[in-house]
Amino acid sequence: MTFKAPDSLSEQIAHYLAERIIRGELKPAERIQEQKVTQALNVSRGSVREALLILERRHLVTILPRRGAHVTELNEHNLRSLCALMGELYILLGNSVATGHQSQADLAPFLGIQQRLTEACARKDIQTFVEESFAVMRAAYPFANNPYLQETVENLQPAMSRAYYLALDRRKAQMNDFLVLFAQLLQAVVARDLAKVREVLSTYCSRSCELVLSALVAD
Predict the structure, then answer these.
(1) Contact assessment for residue 202 and residue 83, using Cβ atoms and an 8 Å cutoff
(2) pTM for the structure as a whole
């Protein structure tokens, strides 16, 4: 593999390693050896170290003194903790859209996402379905106008992607349910019904968490 754009090399290495972790090619608790990554990608050791620090910030690796970097482990406590926190962050974003949209045009990005989710569901395209699910929160960032919220969500998103990837096969049967929830969420946003926004997003996160946990047990 060859990388370009030296000014973002560490981010590219981090993205490469993150994809391997998310897909399960690098297993929980597996050590990531700097030298092997350096040789495999033909990059500097300093860039690899910086990439690992990025992954630590994104909760995909743990770096321990004298033990190096290891892929973070997946367990029930960590998953429930992650889902609980992400649920509250999603609610903050949902409330921002509900209170901040001024016209139907403001909601056009979400209607586009809804259409793409529907098409992905019809194709049983889980990968696209998950990607579009995360696109919802990014479409909400301008309404929140909160760089700290955005940074926190972006740093947690890879860990959530990893969890969802674990449950990909099981999501086939759940996609229609999530489409219904998304339609309910849009209705709540249009009505500026913050209580309903919380109810729908709490249900979504709860169902997602249980789906991932069942996949973790089966795995």
Answers:
(1) no
(2) 0.84
